Amino acid sequence: MKERIKSAALLLLILLSIVQTGMLWYSSPSYQENKQSYIQPPLIGNEEYNQIPLHERVAPYPLVLHRNGKQGWILPHDPEYGDFLNRLHQSQWDEPEPITPRPEDWNRLYKEAVGVELQFIHDLPADAVDVMNEEEISVSGIDRISRIWIFGDSERKGTRLWLIGDQEQKVLEAEIDFPDFDDWFEGVERGALQPVKPHFVAGKIPVDTKKNRRNPVFPSAVYLPDLPLTVRSFTYPLKRIKVDDIKWLFTDPNQIWTLPSEEGDTYTDGNRMLQHNRQTQTVVYRDLRSEPQPSTAAMELEILNQFMKTHNGWTGSYLLDRREKEDHIHLYIFRLMVNGLPVYWPGKMEKGEVRPDTIRLKVSADRVAEYRRSLRYLSSKPARFEDRLLPGRDSVIKELSDEGLSLKQLRALFPGYQVEELRGHVRLEPVWIALKKNGENVILNP
Prior knowledge:
The protein is 21% helix and 39% strand. The protein is of the alpha+beta class. The protein has a 15-stranded mixed beta sheet that branches. Strands 1, 2, 3, 4, 5, 6, 7, 8, 9 and 10 form a 10-stranded antiparallel beta sheet that branches.
């Protein structure tokens, strides 16, 4: 009897175990239900702008070609501009070494040599040159670079590169293996090269070989066309980034809290902060964990470029305008380029305001410490365009005189665009931009 009871109890336990296992099996969510699906963060800008190589993003404009005392321009929208920068990026340099140019060297460079002069609007940190080449380049003995000059050297039968610091009056020289330099140069000359003439803002050419033997002033020039330039004016629709799209800069956008204010909301997760100003339509993102630590400009540029690409943050063709020191770390200012020319918003900015013509980033150690930008940006396609005439040399020099300026007071002079705001649109009108040696911009409107 007892044996039958034991058998029945054992059978009941087995049946209960089977039922429980089945209930657990069918009540548990499947692997597919447990697996968290990846949500693609909103991508703000056009993919085209975010594919611009870093060596192009820090490059100067325009390129000035020299042959036997004659000069011509290449602007960033010309195919030859990108081709040159790609060749420069792939070229091989020797380690640059300091030299002291003789007056004869400067005269040969401006009057006889076949070469390309790359003029930075604002001096480039010397260690940022590293991003312009695939190989690691060690640059020492100079802090900031004003110009890069690449030219054929008939005496030594090769191609030379000069890194020129106009403020420090220093030059570093290297031999460079530039792919098919002569062929590239001749190909450009056969194209539609814009002729220009030098107007010296420091020194002069020819350098007096007797008076300036020991410490000659480095000659440097701005370049102007004799005749008016035909430049296209554009009208662009203005688009706007949603603040929710910027929130994806947080690791988990769902784990943030909001602090409202009259100006706008502030969002934070304890490690990062995003401030939205509704009146100026700007946002400031800060990483609260960042601490000032030394780093090279090349590394900082790589960090900020990768940061921007994670959310397609480049909403236009933004090139490096300048680097400044602020709050013990470096501030990088990138300027919008349209049709190969820089864009400038008119008027004085309110405190903390950023217009769509610039994007500003601070880098500290291994991260972006601050990201400041406008939520407004230009559509990738213009609504309309028409050709304008940008005045030539005589009109520009007269306009400078009317502004109380002489060429000797300038650091740079170049064509660009000034913005006229319309309802929901902006019109870009071609103008000349005069950069004074104290850093102030003067927009000329002949």
